[in-house]
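anyone seen this seq b4? input:
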Amino acid sequence: MMSQQETPTIRPFNGDNIPDSLKENPRWAPWRAVWNEKRQKFDKIPAHAKAPYYGISTAKPERWYSFEAALKAYRDNPTLFAGVGYVMTVPHDVVGIDLDDCVVDNTIAPWAQEVVDQLGSYTELSPSGKGLRILVEGTVPHDWTNHEVGIDGLW
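predicted toks r here
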């Protein structure tokens, strides 16, 4: 197991390339990174933008924020928050796809590049720098996961 000293770092958040169509959705929250020893990765805990020491429920849309409000909370609390995230719960015509462990030394694995090319949508490097997140317009009937390949699909 990875010791506390070996805990990986998280890449700084940069939302410059997020499409305006996503930024316009009030589905954002700043998040805290909490190391999960068992999973050997960070859990991303969504937080209240106006009271940053409190978490929020991803099941309560009235507690989500505009991109600007979440970004302000992140910038105002750089030691508390690790990033700003898009809340993917509840179907809303955007599908999120996580491709795990597909980036090594800033090189995308061929299988992952094929997925990115086929979808032709907004893609970002994960906070760990080891995976990709793709947000694409569309719907899926329910969340799905393929742990063997390392792909998650969320609505």
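The helical segments are 20-23, 67-76, 110-119. Residues 29 and 76 are 13 Å apart (CA to CA). kinda curious what u guys think
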